Amino acid sequence: MNIQDMIEKWNSFDFEGYFSKVTDGDIGNALAREHSDEYDLLALLSPAADKYLEQMARKARELTVRHFGRVIQLYIPLYLANFCSNSCVYCGFSARNRFERSKLSMDEIESNAAEIARTGMKHLLILTGESRKDTPPEYIADAVRRLRKYFPSVSIEVYPMEKDEYRMLKDAGVDGLTIYQETYDRKVYSEVHPAGRKRDYAYRLDTPARGAEAGFRWVNIGALYGLADPAKEAFMSALHAKYLQNKYIDTEISLSLPRMNEAEGGYHAKYTLGDRDYVKTMLAFRIFLPRAGITLSTRERAEFRDRLLPLGITRISAGSMTTVGGYDVHSADVPQFEVSDCRSVDEVVKAIAANGYEPVFQDWVAL
Ligand code: SF4
Questions:
Q1: How far apart are CA 46 and CA 25, in angstroms?
Q2: Top-ranked range on mean pLDDT: pick from 216-220, 344-348, 363-367
Q3: HEC secondary structure over 226-273
Q4: Which of the listed residues 87, 94, 156 should we mutate to test ligand 1's pocket, taking the one with most ligand atoms within 8 A of CB?
Q5: d(CA 247, CA 230)
Q6: Pure H helices in 72-214
Q7: CB 125 within 8 A of CB 157
Q8: What number does the ligand 1 atom closest to the CA of 196 have?
Q9: If you measure from the C-alpha of residue 201 to the centroid of ligand 1, how many angstroms do you get, rounded to a whole number?
């Protein structure tokens, strides 16, 4: 079954009805099993799992240490541009928002790179808005070639591309791809993406697979929590990750759990994933997908991020700016989202060590 069929099949599943029948025994079974299936995942995401968070945390911690050791890898984002041809209702970069757009020149990219490299960061995630016209694949490839002089690992979070374009970017030095489905709910998807190429739900859903087929070393996916029912989004994204993990065994698959800030792009989230449910979701991910990476961004508050560290996180951002450039003199005033953890790289490093984990700047070298 391909991912489109799989998501389609589960989209018509009665989640509420199933959740209302989950018993303590179902949670116990899900926690006892070495390899959990979809129904175990549903049990762990259900309200009945709320009173088992301690047991879930113990199992998640043990699985994380078994598969990843006590290390947390650090990365830092760099926005190259904020041009966008889409109109996502929840984003400050939407084409509907009128503000002066900007894009870094190659020299500006290098000066930002030099500033960031001074912090010791080695893994860089580059982002653009989704405008193929303003930031074509060749611009991104040129940027990557410049950035690779400073960073052994450069990954991308840009518009979806064809497999050949991803191959070209891989040859330029890209090793990882982040692409969020935003919401797996088709109806909500078309409501929150009223215009632009991003309206094509199916094309976006197949994007992580194209990245894996192009040979990226790791692919990171997820939903943006706040747009649709969080438990259903969590279930679908974990299922998507499992599908990719089974099909592309040479690619490391990881998940993110970005939550929408209060009024992102002036849009008020319809659903809330509270802190307790956030923790439960992350634990359920770890138990369902013991080998998957879990990425945590600076959208979350510092104290909350510190509490999550021992529960399954494998990659964390630090020292982030979400405006274009932002690390040197060049800076636009419109951020894509507000950063909630404003600590420096040093402060995040200390917090990781204080939790008994080793902060890792570089865990491998691309040849
Ligand atoms: S979420 Fe991405 S595609 Fe949508 S408006 Fe923002 S930058 Fe553009």
A1: 13
A2: 216-220
A3: CCCCHHHHHHHHHHHHHHHHHHCCCCEEEEECCECCCEECCEECCCCC
A4: 94
A5: 26
A6: 106-117, 137-147, 163-172, 186-192, 201-205, 207-214
A7: yes
A8: 3
A9: 14
24 Cβ partners below 8 Å, 6+ apart?
48
Q: Determine if residue 269 is left, alpha or beta; phi over 0 gives left, psi from -120 to 50 gives alpha, anything else beta.
A: beta
- State the pairing for strand pair 267-268/263-264: antiparallel
Summarize pLDDT for 227-283 with one digit per residue, the tens: 999 999 999 999 999 999 999 999 999 999 999 876 566 788 999 999 999 999 999
CA atoms of 190 and 186, how far apart (whole Å):
6
Q: Kindly state the average pLDDT of the residues 357-366.
A: 82
Q: Which amino acid is at 28?
A: G
* Contact present, 360 and 283 (Cβ < 8 Å): no
The DSSP secondary-structure symbol of 282 reads H
Pocket lining: 210 vs ligand 1, CB cutoff 6 Å: no
Ligand 1 in contact with 93 (CB < 6 A)? yes
CA dist 313 and 310 (Å) reads 7
Q: How confident is the model at residue 25 (pLDDT cuts 50, 70, 90)?
A: very high
Residue whose CA lies nearest to ligand 1 atom number 1: 91
| Token output for 340 | 């909630």
Distance CA 64, CA 352 (A): 15
Tokens for 37, please give them. 């299936």
Is residue 91 lining ligand 1, measured as CB closer than 6 Å? yes
CB atoms within 10 A of CB 9: 11
Output the six-digit token pair for 82. Answer: 């904020």
Pick the closest to residue 238 from 190, 294, 198 (CA basis): 294
**CB-CB contact of 228 with 184 (8 Å):** yes
Give the CB-side neighbour count of residue 341, counting CA atoms within 13 A: 23
Name which residue sits closest to atom 5 of ligand 1, judged by CA: 94
Q: What's the pLDDT score for residue 267? A: 85
pTM equals: 0.95
207 alpha carbon – ligand 1 mean position (Å) = 16
- Token pair of 248 as six digits: 């592309």
